[in-house]
Design goal:
The protein has 167 residues and is an alpha/beta fold. It has three helices and five strands; from the N terminus they run αβαββββα. It has a single domain, classed as Double Stranded RNA Binding Domain (2-Layer Sandwich), CATH 3.30.160. Strands 2-1-3-4-5 form a five-stranded mixed β-sheet.
Length: 167
């Protein structure tokens, strides 16, 4: 009896979470109204950003091909940079601002524009304390990977919002 009650409580909680619209962070929405397959241009096929876009598109139900897709996702103005924020008394870098950005648009193969140019930008601050300098390069690369994932997540959310207005 007690086990049955626990099962009912867990089932009720699970149903109430889905009923209120709760989604796990990073959950990729389905892009059912967008044309498939899509080809991605403006990036090298084996770059980290291309691979992340391709992975998330496939999880959203969109097939990605190298060329001749029903639609073309164009990535332009790709930027990856850093800016010095602060230094210590010995002029050693203490904080850096990391930036990742790109602009995207989506066109059908017939040249009809589905999504106009949409700029996306992600900023993070990297702290580099003097006593932890050895791991800062690896940490910066991990942060950049997370930033690329965030960029693609933003793009996917925008595509999901825009697809609601498509016929």
């Amino acid at each position: 009896m007690k086990n049955h009650l626990q099962y009912c409580v867990v089932l009720f909680l699970a149903l109430s979470l889905t009923a209120c619209g709760f989604k796990l962070r990073g959950a990729i929405p389905r892009l059912d109204k967008l044309p498939s397959p899509i080809s991605i241009v403006g990036l090298a096929p084996y770059s980290d950003l291309y691979q992340e876009i391709s992975r998330q598109m496939q999880q959203a139900g969109i097939k990605v091909v190298l060329d001749h897709g029903k639609a073309v996702l164009r990535i332009s103005d790709r930027k990856s940079g850093s800016r010095l924020l602060s230094v210590d008394e010995a002029n050693a870098v203490v904080e850096r601002e990391l930036e990742e950005s790109f602009t995207f648009n989506l066109r059908q193969h017939t040249q009809a524009e589905l999504v106009e140019n949409q700029p996306i930008r992600v900023l993070r601050i990297l702290n580099q304390p003097q006593d932890e300098r050895l791991g800062s390069d690896r940490e910066a690369e991990q942060i950049r990977q997370e930033m690329r994932r965030d960029l693609v997540n933003q793009m996917m959310r925008r595509l999901y919002a825009i697809q609601k207005n498509l016929p």
